């Protein structure tokens, strides 16, 4: 996806009207990133039971108050709420509406069962740094209209790195690394900081050092052409202090195994959630027929 825009071409804009159904951590982060990127959020109506304000948007507390059927309907509530909330939205997701679901693990087929009339259904797997336009987003699905596909892609490119995935398995793979990744990186930074405190630094200084070290290393790697192995090799001189530290992480592939087990556990939970929503959707279909 290209970030370049052509002079004289329409600026990137949010389709009007756009609904955000649910606006907690993740959906709120998407809106934060768009706001930071200078996008006009006035086409957005947020539907959330708390009615808590979201700068630049109109907020309502129920679907009935939202108004005309949206062109884009972004689903940003918890997957466990789908069977309860989707039937309220169904009548508003017609031939003009593309549904973008960020619900982790809920497959297109399940979504199609809830929104049979929608023009298109897209799954988005963003991560939290979209809030500062340094996010990663995977997209999968068929918006039904190639112009809208481009527009949805561009809206997520405006939040960092975004790409369309070939299938839902690849989307799940992306989500297992990038979607959950910020939580794992946060734990690693915290562990580095804790080690600093144990060596006598104040919590404040140790946290800053750990954060800046991760930021500096990833920035250097992202802007240069080095692999992570090369970065590690440049820090660790033979038989030196870092090499002694790396030997602990590398012994019996300790870190690789820990990360693999971490991601496996999340993937396992993802499969359970997908199965739960599939069952709930079948139960709902049975209730409607
Ligand atoms: N957090 C992440 O890093 C991440 C990453 C990728 C995908 N996701 C996906 O993003 C979705 C939201 O996760 P989250 O972490 O943002 O959750 P969250 O912070 O708990 O937000 C949930 C939102 O759902 C709203 N909600 C609850 N009941 C509703 C109803 N009946 N109608 C409309 N909205 C309702 C809540 O409204 P109020 O604000 O009024 O309480 C809240 O805004 C999940 O499906 C998750 O799988 C999250």
Annotate the secondary structure layout.
Blueprint: E1 18-21, H1 25-36, E2 44-47, E3 58-60, E4 72-75, H2 82-89, E5 98-101, H3 108-114, E6 120-126, E7 135-142, H4 146-157, E8 160-164, H5 168-179, H6 181-198, H7 203-223, H8 228-235, H9 241-250, H10 254-288
Parallel strand pairs: 1-2, 1-4, 2-3, 4-5, 5-6, 7-8
Antiparallel strand pairs: 6-7
The protein binds NADP nicotinamide-adenine-dinucleotide phosphate.
Residues 21-27, 47-50, 52, 76-79, 81, 85, 102-104, 125-128, 179 line the site of NADP nicotinamide-adenine-dinucleotide phosphate.
How many helices does DSSP assign? 10
Low-confidence stretches: none
Multimeric status of the protein: single chain
Main sheet summary: 8 strands, mixed
Evaluate the radius of gyration: 22 Å
CATH class of the largest domain: Alpha Beta
DSSP E strands, number: 8
Alpha-carbon distance between the termini? 42 Å
Instruction: Provide the CATH topology of the largest domain.
Output: Rossmann fold
Instruction: Please indicate the count of domains.
Output: 2
- What value does the average pLDDT take? 93
SSE ordering: EHEEEHEHEEHEHHHHHH
- Category from helices, strands and their pairing: alpha/beta
- Molecular shape: elongated
Side by side, the strands of the main sheet go 3-2-1-4-5-6-7-8
User: Which CATH architecture of the largest domain would you pick?
Assistant: 3-Layer(aba) Sandwich
**Small molecules bound:** NADP nicotinamide-adenine-dinucleotide phosphate
Q: Strand percentage, roughly?
A: 5-15%
- Can you tell me the CATH superfamily of the largest domain? NAD(P)-binding Rossmann-like Domain
